[in-house]
Amino acid sequence: MTPEKWKLLVHCARGGEMETPPVALIVDSPWIPGHLGISTFDYLTLPEVWFEGNLAIEREFPDVIFLPGFWAEVGMATEPSGFGCKFRFSVNSPPSVMPLIRDPTEARDLEVPNPLTDGLMPLVLNFYRRMKPRINAEGHVIKMVAARGPLTVASHLLGVTGFLECMKLEGAATHSLLRVTTTLVKDWLHAQAEAAGEVEGILVLDDISGMMGPKDYLEFAHPYLKEVFEAFPGAIKMLHNDTDNTVPYRHLAGLGIDLFNFTHLQSLSKVRELVGDEICLVGNVPPLEVLAQGSRQDVAASAAECLRQHPARKRFILSAGGGTSPGTPGDNIRALVAAARH
Q1: Is the dihedral of CA 166, 214, 182, 325 positive or negative?
Q2: N or C: which end of the chain has fewer CB atoms below 10 A?
Q3: Are 18 and 11 within 8 A, CB to CB?
Q4: How confident is the model at residue 157 (pLDDT cuts 50, 70, 90)?
């Protein structure tokens, strides 16, 4: 993103008023290669293809804030690869990850990977180091880095069902596992920030924290997410969780986050009521049914409804209610920008 876009994002995150809401979208390897007609495998493994791809979407959509912006990642495989998880590449989709642990008690024996040496993480860091001068030369900056959250990383090690079963049946083992994954997430974000330089924000993506009831959330999710965010004092902090579960919402202010991207299945007005007034909401157009598969008129109507539900001119960014779905057409993104302006 450009320095101007970053300043705009910070302005919104800090509660500054806007005449019209900015438009931002979380984009990564599921959408960018397909939109540009390039191989996902090339995008993930060749720095030149990755750089040119991110630069191309910035040029095509100059009025959109892409989050986190020039995101170097290898799909969901980046963090789990540090533990030795097996993953499978395919030409036109991000790699799939195979669970590493079958017995939950094995979690007690896991060691924290080193982002500088383990798995795919050193390769990602090299993308940032090598491409940062060229990104800056094109007038862009890397101000935000991203990581899957501690519960999501744990779910890749055990499988989602395995992790949730472990949480209910092996509480001590679950805490041991989350202690390790939380440390990794903090270390990984710090390593990216150091490699990219001048980073002032973090994005944590953790849908698994939205798959719990109140008691389990407070025991197994909230403390570990809070620890991650508290490790970056002064940074702009963003959480993505687009599961259809409002249990975490009343506790988000306690995480110290500035921005929240959530599911389109919850209305903006309800989310604002539950979350409170101090967090900037990022949503809430349906990412698949409307933004990817709908018409420009559908996008305009959905955006208008979002603006009706959130008339306040601060702490709101028009976006998808989740990440940008594969196949989302450029015309619909332009329609979203037009709707925000009018």
Answers
A1: positive
A2: C
A3: yes
A4: very high
How many whole angstroms separate alpha carbon 292 and alpha carbon 327? 6
d(CA 255, CA 122): 29
Residue 165 has pLDDT above 90, yes or no: yes
For 3-341, CATH number out of 2.60.40.380, 3.40.50.720, 3.40.50.300, 3.20.20.210 equals 3.20.20.210
Buried b (16+ CB within 10 A) or exposed e, 64-102: bbbbbbbbbbbbbbbbbbbbebebeeeeeebbebebbbe
pLDDT tens figures, 220-275: 999 999 999 999 999 999 999 999 999 999 999 999 999 999 999 999 999 999 99
d(CA 275, CA 294): 29
Tokens 């931002």 — which residue?
Answer: 24
Beta-carbon contacts of residue 341 (< 8 Å; ≥ 6 apart): 20
pTM of the predicted protein model? 0.96
Cα separation, 31 vs 60, in Å, equals: 14
Ordered by start, the domain boundaries in the chain are 3-341
Type of residue at 141: V
User: Residue for token digits 């191989």?
Assistant: 39
- Cα distance between residue 113 and residue 202, in whole Å: 20
Q: Which CA distances in Å does 317 have to 186, 220, 264, 270, 326? A: 26, 30, 14, 16, 21
Q: Which two tokens stand for residue 316?
A: 């709101």
